[in-house]
């Protein structure tokens, strides 16, 4: 299955999927640049008058609730209507949904318009969606990842969507199959936007291989965390340098690198 | 004429023009930093209550429709009223106007309040404004630049404004005179915001030399693309490093460098 | 007193204060990253539905008026109500308040809901709040810092808040005690966001030591300007490189570095 992932990674570069992003203004520049580094074509469009028509052109819609505005809320809903009518995958990052209950309402509102292909969050976000007790500080999870496989599988079945829970070990499941990605670096927590960027990259992979969304999600997490490992090796524990190298290493990451350096466990 | 351009470049540093920007939230930080690197003084102000009074203080108004918000739309209109009353040049970047028809409406609305000094877009954007068939993917042009000189000259006459079309070769015309700028690097397509940044830099040049807007536009494109060439030489095909070096090379770019390294063709 | 400052700096890393930021979209990514480099936990939340509940969880609220939106204006007011009810410190950066009079109205409106712990601005902003004549260009001060000690002390008494005025010499006073911080580098003026970032860092310090807000403000200014000096030493007068190194040097800045390299004058 790892081999299929490496092929999906190559497809991103070949197909250059257009990823329509409605995302937070804190890390939007990083999301656009990481999508370019991945080989995808990013477009950030949330004005309701624009989002409706635009979403029909996209290979995937990435929605991140990090700094929701009233305009984005309206834009998300019209974009979801369009994606549903055109069978375009929707990827949701419900940032801080455990701490900001309003975002759960927005998520429920979205699902009235479109099914979700993937919900990606950190441990605290996914646990809170699953109704588990959790510990978060603002947008950051303070939670251990213990027992996450089962929590994610149950949530995936209940919500009929792929669930990806990120942390030292990433858990990715469609409710039937489950994979663990063990690549990564603690430096991801020293910069803002790692979660947003990986959300964008998985959206690009799903956009390139919409018939294999579970494998595409794993591909996105693998490619991004592996680029992170390589960036960390160059960065000598400096978060600014790490941030910069991340784009460069994702840009140069090849199929063969994934094959050689991936640490995935297939459950 | 190249000599005049180098003098305009020096004027930016000397006069430190205040550039009022109403621009997208994806690349706004890059636009502010590149304006500082150019020697200008950026101010990003779009609240309608603020934009009206503020625009009167500026040397130029730079409007970029990349992520239009309802607030920006209102801010643009009051700012345009102010610039018209005070004879302040207005520079427009109609990002993705061929793909997002709403932006053409906004552009028409702007022109009811103020004349435009310059419209700067990529090949696909300019062609779509000219009513030509075009190929774009999201915010990116997939179009060849063939025949652009004539298309730009016609559009410039029809719209009574300078037209700058960017691509491997940049075309800059006021409908009468036409110049081609051949500096640049393919790495510009690997980062987000190159178009927004060069829009800001041309606005700074026009703000510093409002009596010579055509030459000032050429100056901005020359300075930015030349800084890009130098950054690419340092970046070894890494987009993150390229992005960083861009600010440094524009900051240190001197009059003499322009004179020596510019590749302009005067038609 | 310098020793107390170094202890506050250590506390930021130990307590990891949650800083709720309502700040401008130009430099918001830098503010989030510099807070992470300082050891704090940033959260950018301005939707009125979200800000009210969220502010109650924070150690400090940082409000920056750099690109005020109508949504932010509403979010600021509900957040201020919450902080007042929960005794949470509020730090205000009234960006360009001398040039954009609307922001003074917003500031007055804020103070109907919550007392301010600190107002931090550049020389021109603080002078304009004090009713002095001043010279600014857009968001930048062109003013000399002459006589600022007295101006700041009077303003602090009148407004019952700490005042920090930044410039080549920073002045920090609670109306009774006054300190001058002489660390820094001219490169701060060559990037956007230095003022916003230092505002965030002082908010983190106040969040970590709310019982000593004056010393905490000095700590924030010291740490940030010292990191700037070190970044400048590495950057060889290149603003892009300086920007990058800033995060790395703040991240590695230790208690002992502050003790050794601080240039503070206690008046």
Describe it for me?
The structure is a homotrimer of 267-residue chains. With 267 residues, chain A is α/β, with parallel strands linked by helices. The first copy, chain A, has one domain: UDP-N-acetylmuramoyl-L-alanine:D-glutamate ligase (3-Layer(aba) Sandwich), CATH 3.40.1190. Chain A is 52% helix and 16% strand. Chain A contains 11 helices and 11 strands. Chain A has helices spanning 2-15, 28-38, 48-55, 70-86, 102-113, 123-129, 148-159, 194-208, 213-235, 239-252, 255-261; strands spanning 18-22, 41-44, 60-64, 90-93, 118-122, 136-137, 140-141, 162-166, 170-173, 178-181, 264-266. In chain A, strands 2-1-3-4-5-8-9-10-11 form a 9-stranded mixed beta sheet, with helices on both faces. A two-stranded antiparallel ribbon of chain A has the order 6-7. In chain A, helix 4 (70-86) links the parallel strand 3 (60-64) and strand 4 (90-93). Chain A is globular and about 45 Å long.
